Amino acid sequence: MTFTQSLLEALESLSGNKLRSGLTVLGIVIGVAAVIAMLAVGRGAEESITGSISSIGTNLLFVFSGDAGGPPGRNGGSGNNDRPLTLADAKAIADPFAAPSVQSVAPALQGNGTVTFAGENSSTTIQGVTPEYASVRNLEVAEGEFLNEEQLLGRMSVVVLGPETADNLFGRHEGVVGETIRIEGQPFRVIGVLVAKGGGAFGSEDNSVYIPFTTAQARLTRRGARDEVDIIFVQAASAENVLQASEEIANILRQRHRTPIGDDDFTIFTQQDFLSTFETITGVLTIFLGGIAGISLLVGGIGIMNIMLVSVTERTREIGLRKALGARKRDILLQFLTESSLLSLIGGVIGVIFGWLIGLIVGQIAAASDTNFTPVVGADAILLSTSFSALIGLFFGIYPASRAANLEPVEALRYE
Amino acid sequence: MDWVIEARGLTKTYKMGEIEVEALRDVSFQIERGEILAIMGPSGSGKSTLMNTLGCLDRPTSGDYLLDSEAVSNMNDDQLASIRNRKVGFVFQSFNLLPRMTAIGNVELPLRYAGLTEDRRERAIQALEAVGLKDRMTHRPYELSGGQQQRVAIARAIVPNPSIIMADEPTGNLDSKVGKDIMSLLLNLNRERGTTLIIVTHDPVIAEQTQRIIRLRDGYLESNSQEKKVKAKQ
After folding, report:
1. Does the pLDDT of residue A281 top 90, yes or no?
2. By C-alpha distance, which of A194, A142, A186 is closest to A165?
3. Among A149, A169, A194, B83, which residue carries the largest CB count within 10 Å?
4. pLDDT tens-digit profile of A25-56?
5. Is the pLDDT of residue A105 over 80?
């Protein structure tokens, strides 16, 4: 008996009892649909988050004051003994001899405040930045210009608006250059509006206003005299240099702050750190959801075994007859194994279609609620789940099939 | 003599729990190629066991059984399957057709297990033609009458050109007129093809149409009317 023949016969036998076959594969259908939908949504989320992480800049490092990774109790968190980061620290990091892997450095002051225009109020993040900030953070200007060196040195009252802030104040984000708005009561002239980046993983960058660092120092914070900065953004020369840049920055800061190794009073975070933290989380989630889907597949497999056992009992006479006509053990074995794996393969294919539909619906819902998120059904997920379901059918078919194959022809023929 | 079947001292013992039941006790006989023969006996006489043994569905506990000079007694399961496939055609009382398959599909089944692919269809058609059912090829069993179903079963039995046809009460589920037709079909096929025909039956009318009757009682060979028939022929 060739393989195609047993395939045809199995198909015939399964279609001879459509309702039962359909109910039998339901477990596999649900299991595979769960796997496919779960992977699609997970991968979509991953892509969307990875996208927003890379949109905050390329080869970016973040330097904060305070030791996030230090031993607790001594200098952990933002301890009181931590020396704040200063403009001088930023200048030292920018030194091409001490830190050759660093391409550019952008210190920033950050605070929340209220901006007003013609009676419209909006609360935003106020960022005191240098001209390098735009390139380090991948900011693009939709209209007008970003801050320049002259404005920085002159402590000028100019501001670049995030598009959302512009919308909040003006009801539009075009044609607003030249207007004057008030930040914390002080007048600033709008010189540019940024391109929208969408909601990032770190709060909306679109709802921010950017003013020269020196202006922020002098007029909006009380720390002007001490030259403090809140955060230093550093761009490494290339992706391979990120780790090395991190080392170089750490060495410079340790020297300047006179801290022993292992007792740093600053924290350097790379984009890679964000990504790997995120990947750890999604990895755990994937294993968890995969486990649930796996249990569903297992239950489906047991359902198939159950029905195959019933089917073997029902068809005892048929098996006896086939043996009388010359079927060997392996012919019968092949017949029932083909049936069970075909059954679960069909369940797998239906499950893939269902899972894909679920992913599609989730994508539609996300699109309707303006979320930047598209579920992705990968070819590998389809291949994996269909072949896995066929394997389940094969595995759970072994016992019923061997029972059929080992029936004694005489007794099987006599069975009523 | 050209013996198609030689049975020497066939014994078959079943274990029913603690008790051993002797279904066949030292049964010996020969069957000539092309012969028509009836096996008779009351229920429990061992006639089913003898049929199963002669049909290679089961092995004797002791004794020798040669089918076409092949020693069946010591064969393993797969060898038994192969010899059944090549040398034995079965006709059952309840037809035993596969309900999902068409008539021709049922007839093709033994050829499939023989691994035949090329002229399988033609041979199945020829066999159906021989039983007069060529025009019912694509019908399924439930679309056929009892007599037609038994004809399909006979076509399935003759399609591998077996050495013997084992018919177990072939007319038991049919009314007497159709039964008569089936009997004359079997006898005709024997005449045309020279295939040995062994009929297991209760029915003396059927047994009368054979050349020889083997009677069993309590597992023993009670009578073997060969000599009488051979003499009568002469």
Report:
1. no
2. A194
3. A194
4. 998 898 889 888 888 888 888 888 777 777 77
5. yes
Residues of B in contact with A317 (CB under 8 A): 96
Mutate to test the interface with B, among A325, A328, A330, A339 (most CBs of B within 10 A): A325
Can you give the residue ranges of every domain in chain A? 3-53+276-414, 83-264
Determine how many CB atoms are found less than 10 A away from the CB of residue A359. 24
Q: Which pairing describes strands A266-270 and A60-65: parallel, antiparallel, or unpaired?
A: antiparallel
Q: With cut-offs at 50, 70 and 90, classify the pLDDT of residue A15.
A: confident
Assess whether pLDDT exceeds 70 at residue B153.
yes
Amino acid of residue A102: V
Q: Which CATH number fits domain B3-233: 3.30.390.30, 3.90.1180.10, 3.40.50.300, 1.25.60.10?
A: 3.40.50.300
CB distance B33 to B4 below 8 Å = yes
Report the residue of chain A nearest B59, measured CA to CA.
A410
CB A299, CB A32: distance < 8 Å: no
Interface contact A12-B78, CB threshold 8 A: no
Chain B: closest CA distance from residue A291 (Å)? 40
d(CA A306, CA A316): 16
- Beta carbon pairs, A and B, within 8 Å: 60
Distance from CA of A344 to the nearest CA of B (A): 22
